[in-house]
Every structure is written in C-alpha cells, then in structure tokens.
Amino acid sequence: MSAQTKVAVEVDGRTLTLSNLDKVLYPETGFRKGEVIDYYARVAPVILPHLADRPATFKRYPNGVDGKFFFEKNAPSHAPDWVRTVTLPTPGSTKGHETIDFTVIKDLPTLVWAANLAALELHIPMWRVGPRGKVHDPDLMVFDLDPGPPATIVECCEVAQLLRDVLKPDGLTAYPKTSGSKGMQLYVPVKGAGWQHTHAYARDLAQRLTQERSDLVVWQMKKEIRGGKVLIDWSQNNAAKTTVAVYSLRARPRPTVSTPIAWDEVESCTSPEDLVFTSNDVLERVDSHGDLFADLLDEKKAGSLPK
C-alpha cells in the first residue's frame, strides 16, 4: 500500500477518509499511523468517557515524533459538521484570539478523525462544559509529579504515596497514572469548589510536603533546585491549563501511553521500566482489569475540599 493511499471507512454511521496509514510516526519501533488509529479505536470504550464534555487540545505530529509538532486548540476548518465544538473565551491568548472553537471528542468517529490528523496526544482540562457550552467548576484536581534527574518515576512513586496519605484525612481519594513520559500524575475527584480553591489547596499541599520532605520534594519550578527531587506541579489546577488525558499516546521514542495504575504497582516500583506501558500493554491491561480510572466518572466518589 502506498503511503499516500486514502481509504474510506464507516465508523458508527459516519464516513471518514483515512490517509497515509503506512506512514511511520514512531521511527524507533516502526509504529505506523494506521496503528495509531487502531489503538485509539480499540481503547475508545475506556478513553471516551474521560474525554466527554472536555474541550480538547490536540498535539499533532504530522511527520512523526521526530518531526515538528504543533498544538491545535481551534477546531480545524475542515472538521466534519458532526464534530462537536464549543466556543470558549481565551483571555490572554498568545495568538490574540478572544475566543477559540475547541473540539469536544464525544464519540468514536470524532476520536478516529482526530487520530487521522496525527493528533498523537490529547490534552484536556480538569473541568467539563455543559450541553450549551457553560463551563462547570472543576471535577478533578491534579498533581503532576515531575522528576528532576537523576530522580525518576521511582521517586515520583514515593511522593505519590506521601500525597495520597495527606489527602486521605481530608476525605479525598487519589488515583495514580503514568504520564507516559518520565513522570506521573495523581487525580483527585472533587466537587463544590471553583478552580481558585482547588488551585490554592493543591499549592498549599505541595508547599507542606516540601517543608516536611525537603530532601525529596520541591513545589517551585526553578531548575536549579530540582536536581534529584520531584516537583509537585500544582499549577495545572487552573482554568486555562490542560493535562494529558488518561489513555492518550505520548510522543516518545516508543508509543507509550498515559496509563492508570494500581496503588500496589506504585508501592512496588523499583525501576523506571516497571511503569512503562506501550499501546499494546494498555490494551491488554484494559482487557484484564477494565478501566482503573472508572471511579473518576462516579460523582459519588468525589470529595469536598476543606474550607
């Protein structure tokens, strides 16, 4: 098959034209665009509920992970008319836009369409929009754990357990996932608080752990203080910020995935390779364990932040 071959496919009643299916997007492993689309189609049952009603930012790699990439917030003009978009204000936009028409990935055809754009990475906010585009309060709080070399995800796992244990007395439950790159994230389902409240609470917790474990933790991004320590990045709890979606591919040498993990995997991690999962690994994990992030979709699991 030629790299330029176009194929018309029907996905849940929508006709899509897929192109360049043989194009290698991950040169180290030979992982092709067709395999990217196949992964997203197969992982759709577990990823779509987490993308639902969240305006998406695409990180596109049309020439593969070694080529130039770009972030796409505005839905492309050639998007099919059945792709849901939501118009949101973007004050302070670096491109001077007052509003942006974001794509909302609501179904399998939209997910396959995005994958065909070589949108390898899908990034979403901690909040949802209503049926008419109203921005809701955040339903998630996130702690992004970023290791400063020579620290690795092994040290991130230690910090994740510290965070889990200080969140618990406040009635909050943390759910870990790998970033698919070198770190990990903790997600905490929350309710009844605006983003300013989640932002302040997350910052205070990061500062507290920095004071208690200054040998291991930092809460500020200054490069000169991060060597061998783990940054608890609390700043993602901001209405304007996004984080890589659970089950999203990452643009790494291998087709690794931001993967939900169990706490026993966090506790037993002794090597960075213990928590590296490729697309095939993730599909096998979903077959075996289902969606380890399913509780984040249950409003009854959400906790209230202390006043």
CATH architect. name of the largest domain: 2-Layer Sandwich
Strand content: 15-25%
Main pleated-sheet profile? 6 strands, antiparallel
Order of helices and strands: EEEEHEEEEHEEHEEHEEEHHE
Taking pLDDT < 50 over at least 5 consecutive residues as the criterion, the unreliable ranges are: none
Distance between the termini: 61 Å
Q: Tell me the number of structural domains.
A: 2
What report would you give on this structure?
With 307 residues, the protein is of the alpha+beta class. The chain is 25% helix and 24% strand. The chain is built from 6 helices and 16 strands. The protein has helices spanning 33-51, 108-116, 153-167, 195-212, 263-267, 279-289, and strands spanning 6-11, 14-19, 24-26, 31-32, 55-60, 70-72, 84-89, 99-104, 119-124, 140-147, 175-178, 184-191, 217-218, 230-233, 243-244, 303-304. The strands form 4 sheets. Strands 5, 6, 7, 8, 9 and 15 form a 6-stranded antiparallel beta sheet that branches. Helix 1 crosses helix 2. The model has no long low-confidence stretch (mean pLDDT 95).
